[in-house]
Amino acid sequence: MPVNKKNKALNALLARGTKQESPQNLSPMLATLIDKPFDEPGWLYEVKWDGYRAIIYLYNGNVEMRSRNNKSFNEKFYAVYNVLKQWKLNAVLDGEIVVINDEGISNFGDLQNWRSEADGELILYLFDVLWIDGYNVMSLPLTERKQILNAIAPDAGIIRVSESFDTGATEFFEAAKKLNLEGIIAKKANSIYLPGKRSNDWLKIKTNKRQEVIIGGFTNNEGSSKLFSALLVGVNENGKLKYTGKIGTGFSDKLQKEMMEQFKPLITNKIPFTHEPDVNKPSRFRPDPPKATVTWLKPKLVCEVAYTEITSDGVMRHPSFEGMRVDKNAKNIHLEKEAHTKDIVPTNKNSVMPKKAATKKAVKKTAPKANDLTKKLLKGSTGKERKTLLNPTEKSQTKTINGHSLTFNNLNKIYFPATKNTRAVTKRDVINYYYQVAPYMVPFLKDRPQTMIRYPNGINGQSFYQKDVTGKVPDWVELFPYSTEEGGDRNYMICTNEAGLLLMASLGSLEIHPWSSRAQKPDNPDWCILDLDPGDKTSFDQVIQAAQQIKQVLDAIGAEAYCKTSGATGMHIYMPLGAKYNYEVSKEFGRVLVTIVQSQLPKFTSIERIVQNRQGKMYLDFLQNRPQATLAAPYSLRPKPGATVSMPLHWDEVKKGLTVQQFNIFNAVDRIKEQGEIFKGVIGKGINLKKILKQINTVFGEQEMHESLLKLM
């Protein structure tokens, strides 16, 4: 049994199962609805999660997540699927897919709206194991199956085990109500697993009334601008669709648009209900309702509603839409009636609790109280680590970023073709990358005019520079005016937040080029840059040597400095100025530095501006400190094979063996998370140039300096 050869207790449990090939197309075991909680020995209690039930099949590296109506969840919930793919296990498991908040509480509406990892923390809660490594364990008692599950499942992360306890459901139920949980589940500790059966060995107690219903039509109120005003719903009864009410609340405009796409192919002239509902019937609270027209639908779609009670004629009072149930088949939807607890769970003073040895590792021993339920059973969302903004399947997706709606199209377009060592990178990948690095990158872009270099068809397509964005960006984008010899209004785009960054990425700006100064002080750069640009006769090892030499010079004069790979062929060295000096001062300070360094490394460096005069040597470029000159920002992608990244470095990393290619879209995010923001000093207080210029003359002798520098001394 390769599950865990060293775990004798686990292997002993598996041996009690039945040898069998991996089962297929199982339906989950179902619970019976009862009206009240109870405190009886021999039962286990757990949270009723508000999500999609799923049977998970793991076999030889293949993963299949199936809904109750046997539809695949693999693409829809790709984040769970990707983690399960890494879980080397042969098993069939039962669980619930949910989206949780910071307190660990699941919300079905959030799950409905989930399209990517940016929409909330997706969790798979596991609560049973049905088959494992060649053994059917459904005939084992629940407590033993729980032991197996706890032995094989991870402790935390996106896959979690739904914990149980075996004492006191009444207090647990009251705690669940206070936290607005959907309810609790009670399971007999010795219950076997019965696929597809609704059993009295598993019971559910809901904190609020909820019901799955079939959509049979929708209404449009006269004069309403909404796509629909209400849903007409019902349940199966004696082979026919019985009307149970009209649902008019719980829909966002976005949700209505998505639902209408599902409705269109189902529109029919035939009334699906046993009797035509009177949608214009006045009520005591609405004696003169707006006139509504009806569009009938074939009864194929299922949704879930919350309500206060059902009237004597079978209509729900105060129904509210909770979400679509893509995991349910309309033919299986009936009115769920609560059974009386006393009829299902008769008090039995002679009943015996499961043996301690069988439960000690599988369940908790005390019922959580209201004030500590979240600590004992609910693990909150981490909410800190950014993952994907866009899901891997939809070619067009709309997201709200910083309050602005951004639509991303043609997401499957290849921006970086595959190389020998890397897969192809799509537009989707690029936008997901910039979303993940935005918290680190935006501080270096904020309030700065941007020069866009656009690659709308990827790095092998035609590219072009764009400075003027007049009339070509949304109204919420801030602009920075400039003039040209041709005249007319011209405007740079100013990046103010991550919405601006993602807008540029969506326009094909693979690399991001901000000004060195901010719009508030456009003539005063926040940093001075030295760009080490190797020639055709210089190697990257020589770039490293030049960077090390510059660092020695800067250390000698007490100048703070930060370095990064260019992401292309060279390196960039930044010195913070704090916007205290103008571009002329920054440029001339850079000139003094490269002059010193070039004199120390004359064999392979040059400060000649004209390329042919450099004779293949490395160019120590200080002219990037002119107004409106730009370089690739920290963490920016570069239009090179393999999707390289301009990566900030620790100075002790600048040594032989370093390559530009080692930092790319595939590993940059992990590195940034590990190293943190090591470049933030660049936008700090800034160096004292007056002091440093004097130190230059002291350490390296009198240097020729521009008058702009002499004025500072």
From TrEMBL:
Its cofactor is Mn(2+). The keyword Glycoprotein does not apply. Keywords: ATP-binding, DNA damage, DNA recombination, DNA repair, DNA-binding, DNA-directed DNA polymerase, Exonuclease, Hydrolase, Ligase, Manganese, Metal-binding, Multifunctional enzyme, Nuclease, Nucleotide-binding, Nucleotidyltransferase, Transferase. GO terms for molecular function: ATP binding; DNA binding; DNA ligase (ATP) activity; DNA-directed DNA polymerase activity; exonuclease activity; metal ion binding. Residues 115-248 form the ATP-dependent DNA ligase family profile domain. CDD domains: Adenylation_DNA_ligase_LigD_LigC, LigD_Pol_like_2, OBF_DNA_ligase_LigD. SUPFAM superfamilies: DNA ligase/mRNA capping enzyme, catalytic domain, Nucleic acid-binding proteins. It holds the Pfam family LigD_Prim-Pol. It comes from the Bacteria. Its EC number is 6.5.1.1. The keyword Nucleotidyltransferase applies. It catalyses: ATP + (deoxyribonucleotide)n-3'-hydroxyl + 5'-phospho-(deoxyribonucleotide)m = (deoxyribonucleotide)n+m + AMP + diphosphate. One of its GO terms (biological process) is DNA repair. This is DNA ligase (ATP).
